[in-house]
Amino acid sequence: MASSPQTTSDAKRAERYRGATVEDLDPPPAFSIYPTESISHALQVAFERDYTHLTVISHDTRALLGYVSLPRLKQLLESRAVTPDDAVENAMQKFRRKGQIYKIITMDTPLEELEDFFNGGVRGNKTQDFAVITDGARRFVLGVTTKSDLEEFVRRRPA
Question: pTM here?
Fold first, then answer.
């Protein structure tokens, strides 16, 4: 009996990750900023921690509002669309809440699911560069992981 391409693909992925979860990536703790903080502060924080993405949270509720991608932020600065003294809210990418279904990524999420998320998003129609890691109830941002973090994990893991 021949195996389907899907079964073969799933077996290869299972072999690659061997039951590992997001926690096995050992993501650094999240560092969130407020939308009113300056872009120069965001750049400094990201540089000090070697982060490529920072989450942006509400002052009042600590709700996740969006994120700042450092490569995009640098492009905006170079094109003079923003200045270092501008507020982060002028450069952040906001999460669209209405009509959107978000994939919850927790420390217990299997790496196969994380790979699916990076390769196709929630509905398989948009690739993602990073994932916000939360608790199961989505009350706390625990960290951020990137596609390159996942690739590095696979590269370093013994065969």
Answer: 0.76
Position 136: which residue type?
G
The DSSP code for 37 is S
CB contact burial 137-151 (16+ within 10 A = b; e otherwise):
eeeebbbbbbbebbe
Residue 93: CB atoms within 10 A of its CB come to: 14
Alpha carbon separation from 157 to 22, 25, 94, 153 (Å, rounded):
14, 11, 35, 6
pLDDT tens profile 4-29: 555 556 677 777 788 899 999 999 88
Question: What secondary structure, in 3-state letters, does 59-118 show?
Answer: CCCCCEEEEEEHHHHHHHHHCCCCCCCCEHHHCCEECCCCCCCCCCECCCCEHHHHHHHH
Q: Residue 139: CB partners within 8 Å, gap ≥ 6?
A: none
